[in-house]
Amino acid sequence: MADLVKRIALVGGTHGNELTGVYLVKKFQQYPDLLKRNSLEVLTLLASPRAVAENCRYIDRDLNRCFVNDELLDLTLAGYEERRAKEIIGQLLPPGRPGIDMIIDLHSTTANMGLSILPSSKHPFNLRLSAYLGTLDSSVRVCLGESSGPDSPMLRSLVPLGCTIEVGPVAQGVLSAELFEKTEMLVQAILDYVDAYNRGAALPTPDSLILYQAIGSLDYPRDAAGELQGAIHPQLQFQDYEPLVPGAPVFRTFAGESIGYLGNSTVFPVFINEAAYYEKNIAMVLTEKQQIKVVDGE
Ligand SMILES: [Zn+2]
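^ thats the input. predicted complex w/ zinc ion below
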């Protein structure tokens, strides 16, 4: 990749009750020198100020599902997040002016996902950066969503370079000093990595990477009306990124019965019992664990 990464958007508050990103962005806005690097510029953004003010995930609908190409052209969609999505694009990718090259979107999760890096795409630059971040802390995991790349409805998908950082477990509306500081460490490491890359002195990266590739999701047991009939099995709670073998317990019904995993191969669940996903009918996201080569160059 010959192009330099000159402008980075650092985003928090895409979900207003994920306080790690909200307060990290506010801290960087208060102390902008912390983001200074010679070869690049960082634009900080609180994506959903109203949701931040109201300490909720969203006002009308999930902002991180609003970056759908057709919908962005539809001016009749005028909910708060639908309008914010259009404003954010205007700010990050202004017509006729240089836009951002990379997005770092800061989130937190109630699941036990440690420091999870979700690259925006399988672009070699993202994979090398992710492999590098994996060397910095033992709780770093790299997880690729089912809908990554330009067709994803997520904010990070506006440009191919960058990632979402998901840290957890932490409750919605709560700050954890440890996760706050580790997220800050990752942001600083990303800026250092990009700065070194821009100067032609790329930091050394491992030549392979463990990637958790999302392949689907499981919903909770429900009745015909959609009412919950059980919860995550206690043996599975907080076991994100651990192997789940066929037949192993996944849910326990309110009647006390265990429901086993029906798949026929081992998977690695993430976002187990994520609070925000009950309404999305997602009890966990299933991934496959892959070891992939991190290629040099394009
Ligand atoms: Zn989030």
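Residues 14-15, 18, 107 surround zinc ion (CB under 6 Å).
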